[in-house]
Amino acid sequence: MKKRTGKAILFFTPFMICFFTFWALPFLYGVYMSFRKVSLTKGDRGFVGLENYRALFEQSSMYAQDFLTGLKNTLLFVAVSVPLLIVIALALALIVEALPARLKSVYRTIFFMSYAISVTAVSSVFLWLFNGNGGYINNLLVQAHLIQKPVPWLEAQPFAWIVLVAATLWWTVGYNMMLFINGLNEIDGALYEAASVDGAGFLKKLWYITLPGLRNVTVYVSLTSIIASFNMYGQANLITKGGPTQSTKTLIMVIQDVILKKNNLGVGNAMALAMGVVVMAFALCQQHLTKEKKELKEVGGNGR
After folding, report:
1. I need a labelling partner for 257 at 20 to 30 A (CA). Which of 91, 116, 142, 294 fits?
2. Per-residue model confidence (pLDDT) at position 297
3. Residue 303 has what pLDDT?
4. Angle at CA 284, nearest 5°, toward 283 and 286?
5. Kind and range of the H or E element at 37?
6. Residues forming beta bridges with residue 44, ordered by sequence position
7. What is the pLDDT of residue 5?
């Protein structure tokens, strides 16, 4: 028994070292700095209590407008991108799984390949595609006589958001697709055969077999997509640079500016923790709603 315990500790220790070194300690230090007045040049100038947090919401504060703008832009991106990341990934998974066996691996690789590309390369491609002057998409539309003048994809809204969401979808949807494919493979094929015998069509199979069978995968994909979308930085920074008129400047970009340009680590850490609270609230709501739906289905099933 002691030998087994020793082996368990041996395997568990590296994880705990990495966890405390790269997550727990930096997090606790960030919480500590959020209650202090800290800058890169002047160092720690003492405890200020909740002053850094009040600065995020007081209208007289120079940080409040930036924080609320970044939060609003981030929430908008989450609201638009997350449903698309789920629905399109599920659609692609269903399409790939319906292909002949010899083609499945080919298309899985094709759709997943974009996820292996760096955000810098993805942003460069979409800058080339959607550049307002001489961009490939504008040239194509003009030559096809679909538009008379170039569309300001990166210089006006809602076009800038369309480009950022499209770039994010192209870049990351393959990962979600693979998760859904793994979930589809776990569903018992006998359920589909029985449904076919009963005359069920595609939509009924999707509603009564596929979606319930993918519930846990869908929850995981939703949570990871929400967290990833809240942390969106590279696309906005490289493609639109936060413009036009800061309409695509995300909260991560605001935090970077506060720490590096405005030289205030205290407020920057307060913003990061406030963002973490918002993300956690979204995650808890998602889990609560999913659990509630499951309980209602179970009650309904028992009622029958």
Report:
1. 116
2. 56
3. 45
4. 65
5. strand 36-39
6. 38
7. 76
End-to-end Cα spacing for the chain: 49
Specify the pairing of strand 36-39 against strand 43-47. antiparallel
DSSP-based three-state secondary structure for 219: helix
3-class secondary-structure state, position 44: strand
Instruction: Name the residue type at position 263.
Output: N
User: Which DSSP state fits 19?
Assistant: H
- What are the structural domains, with CATH classification, of the chain? 51-117+173-303 (1.10.3720.10)
CA torsion 81-86-88-92 (nearest 10°) is 150
Q: What is the pLDDT of residue 282?
A: 83
Cβ neighbours of residue 50 under 8 Å, at least 6 residues apart?
Answer: 35
Instruction: Name the amino acid, one letter, at 86.
Output: I
HSE on the CB side for 233, CA within 13 Å? 9
Q: State pLDDT tens for residues 241-273.
A: 999 999 999 999 999 999 999 999 999 999 999
Q: Which two tokens stand for residue 46?
A: 């003492």
Using CA atoms, how far apart are residues 49 and 162, in angstroms rounded to an integer? Answer: 41
Q: How many CA atoms lie within 13 A of 169 on its CB side?
A: 19
Reported pTM: 0.89
Residue with tokens 């493609």: 239
* Tokens, residue 48: 């200020």
Q: Which pair of tokens denotes residue 171?
A: 């870049």
CB atoms within 10 A of CB 28: 11
3-class DSSP state for residue 46? strand
* Amino acid identity, position 110: I
One-character DSSP codes across 259-273: IIIS--HHHHHHHHH
Residue linked to tokens 């990871």: 224
Determine phi and psi for 45, rounding to 5 degrees: -110, 20
Q: Tens of pLDDT along 4-57? A: 777 778 888 888 999 999 889 999 999 999 999 998 888 888 999 999 999 999
